[in-house]
Give the backbone structure.
Amino acid sequence: MDSSTFNSLVSSLKQTSFDDDKADAIKTTVQSAGEVSADQMVQLLKFISFDDTKLEVAKAAYQHATDPDSFGNVVGRIFSFSDAKEELNKHIRQNPKKPPTKVPHPHPYYCGWE
């Protein structure tokens, strides 16, 4: 997520009272941005009080992770209870992030040289 979008979301979260509203804002922004780093998720999840809600948001954000290999370890540190971290790691194992698909060039003899 670019820094402008991230900073705007942080400002919005600071003015939001309820965890459910914060969770919705984070999930919506991550989905529309299309990407989020584990470090950004840690900072965003600090605005949410309860592990259950943090876990829900982290699971939703995983498919947009720019660093899926370290996502579980980095984001897992934010949870108060180990069972939430275990649940996130289970979700990651069961839902491996798919690499972006490469769209072939429309010209059949295109070799990438310009």
Notes: The CA atoms of residues 51 and 83 lie 9 Å apart.
